[in-house]
Write a structure and sequence with these properties.
Ubiquitin-like (UB roll), mainly beta, 33% strand, 5 strands, single chain, 1 helix, globular, 66 residues
Length: 66
């Protein structure tokens, strides 16, 4: 199945959870938020959020500074 992450398509296996997908990207998870179909999913729910074909994911990196 295909999902879109930040406007880029990714092929993922059926039943893949959000936490496993994010782990597969090998990115630092500290300081990021993830929206699924434009709704932010708390990190505490990543393990129970099963991705479905056609979903749109957005990864947002927090930055600090003035």
């Amino acid at each position: 199945m295909i999902i879109n992450l930040n406007e880029k398509p990714y092929e993922v296996a059926e039943g893949t959870t959000l936490d496993k997908f994010i782990e597969s990207l090998d990115i630092q998870i500290q300081g990021i938020a993830v929206a699924v179909d434009f709704e932010v999913v708390p990190k505490s729910r990543w393990h129970e959020t099963v991705l479905k074909d056609g979903m749109t994911l957005t990864v947002i990196h927090a930055v600090s500074g003035g």
